[in-house]
């Protein structure tokens, strides 16, 4: 493709140059011929037409007054000869001019500048007399030459061939350079389009000139396509992960539902009402679990892939958490549990999605209650993170709290988490090793962590076995 474009432009340039060269040569030749013809005819016409100023007087030729004035004006002279080549009259002739001529001398006089280098002699005839007209002018010349048509045509062909060869060589050189300069950006552009077709999104260097805007647009297109490709890959991974998670997580409840359904189908007549109730309750519980699992899987996948639009609104976290605790203690089966709130700041305004933030904080509180004894104490503390922290505290917390304004701490004095399990707390399905409680889908902590991250926050966890666990939310 590169050389095809180069040849196309090169052919156009060569054709134009050749045509222009031929036309220029033709015009030049025509102008030269016209110039010589006009120049020659003007002097020859004057010389030959001067006979009208020559009159006969008593059989002798004389030049009338008008003719003499014209000779003076043109700085010319005239010599009139009889049939023997002898001078019978003369006007304004130079002193060195001879008075008689042989036929050969007459021819010599006409062909060459015999008088001086500035005078050209022309021949005319009047009343059976011949005459020489000499005009002294460097701008006037006459060349007499003999030629052979065959030789002239041969030499003209050689000259024309030489001109064409030189012009074509020049055109090839100029055309090649011009074509290369013109087609190089096009070749780069074609390669860029080829890369886009092969899903290789690479920016191209932008050359100066007429193609600059084209390259800018191509680079912008490449960036956009790269973004779309990454987004598509992300969605593909998300779909594959979703399918994998769903298929994995549904196996256990489906197996349970399938087993009890088979039992009911094969032995329903032999089962007591109590057994029927228990089996159908298990199937119902597993179906509800599957529904909750699907909802949680969908939520965590959308959160991790930033596909869930958050409904942000300005919220005072102090008021928000106080109302959340009142609602939790009034309506839940944990109304008699010990939950304390310490607000070390009067107001903490943050843009949050109230529904999701409520779920995250309740998840942390719920885990502190469900994985410990009933007398566990859960403390929720709200603090403002000030830049003016003392040096020691600032040094220890700088890495974790820099850029955040508020911290929410949820601490308990329960069993704590073994050191080997701390790193797995936010993994899917983690339920710990210090409790037999298996209620829930096992995605609560993972979802809560993803909600905090979706709010551009951070979360930290520390735990000491048999002393308790502390979760710090930074916003």
UniProtKB/TrEMBL annotation:
SUPFAM superfamilies associated with the record? ATPase domain of HSP90 chaperone/DNA topoisomerase II/histidine kinase, Homodimeric domain of signal transducing histidine kinase
TM spans, by residue? 12-36, 155-178
Please state every residue range assigned to the domain named Histidine kinase. 245-475
Where in or outside the cell is it found?
Membrane
Q: What is its main location?
A: membrane
Enzyme nomenclature, EC number: 2.7.13.3
Keywords of the record, alphabetical order, are:
ATP-binding, Coiled coil, Kinase, Membrane, Nucleotide-binding, Phosphoprotein, Transferase, Transmembrane, Transmembrane helix, Two-component regulatory system
Catalysed reaction equations from the record: ATP + protein L-histidine = ADP + protein N-phospho-L-histidine
Q: Which GO terms describe its biological process?
A: osmosensory signaling via phosphorelay pathway
Q: Which domain of life is it from?
A: Bacteria
Q: Which Pfam families match?
A: HATPase_c, HisKA
UniProt-recorded name of the protein:
histidine kinase
Give the species this sequence originates from.
Peribacillus muralis
